[in-house]
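Standup notes, protein team

Yesterday: finished cleaning the Companilactobacillus baiquanensis set.
Today: ABC transporter ATP-binding protein structure.
Blockers: none.

Input for ABC transporter ATP-binding protein:
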Amino acid sequence: MQIIVKNIAKDYGKRFNAVHAIKDIGLEVKQGEFLGIMGPSGAGKSTLLNIISTNERPDHGQVLIDGIDMTQLHDKDQAKYRRNKMGFIYQNFELLDSLNVKENIILPMALRHASKRLIEQSFKHMTRLLNIEELSKRNVDDLSLGQKQIVAAARALINGPEILFADEPTGSLDSKSATILLNYMQLINDKEKTTILMATHDAFTASYCSRVVFVKDGIIFSEVVNPGDRNKFFEQIINMQRTIGGGSYFNVSKNS
Ligand SMILES: Nc1ncnc2c1ncn2[C@@H]1O[C@H](COP(=O)(O)OP(=O)(O)OP(=O)(O)O)[C@@H](O)[C@H]1O
């Protein structure tokens, strides 16, 4: 699943008060990449993720996924594409409190009208992979924040998406829970070959990626490629953050 973003731009608001959230971004993401998107607050990270994931339409430009221009699809076809090929993890989990853990996790499959057998098989596979088998009957309200995010990850992954979008997935987690989640994301990236696009402020979180692009003022300012050593990569990310600036919005604390 190759992603090619060509010259996208996105403004919010009316002419004189317009915010140029994305000015001109081009980007290529290879099949199986774990790409980080960093940058100061308001730089355009979430907007970029939302445009690539078809949750928002750009004003200009193309988003080609395996050669199909997503921006040209009707809303209904975009929604179908998202349901079938994409998974999402957000900072605030977005789990449904009225459903238990298992019901939350299998929801995307139920929405696709998958067979009971397939649902059970996939549920078993995912909960085993993420090591949360014992949580299945619990209420969402009774889980720790870290457990909630792993459950949200299981829900995002149960349909076997080809692309996983994660927007500040560790933003609400303590460092231990963040590390557990990131190790699972890396496992999914390795084992299932899922392409991952993750926006984050946090250098430690970003150090799990294979490459990080830095967005500033709606353009890609630079990128850093993981040299194969997470500690070295962490230092490189921090140096790039310092170069770009962004004041206190950047979290450069190393969690472990
Ligand atoms: N729906 C919207 N309506 C108006 N302005 C918006 C909207 N969404 C984003 N913006 C503006 O677009 C710019 C980019 O926002 P975006 O959320 O993409 O940045 P970000 O890098 O993800 O920021 P953060 O790290 O704080 O989440 C900001 O100036 C933001 O205020």
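Follow-up from PR in the comments: The domain at 33-47+74-249 is CATH 3.40.50.300 (Rossmann fold).
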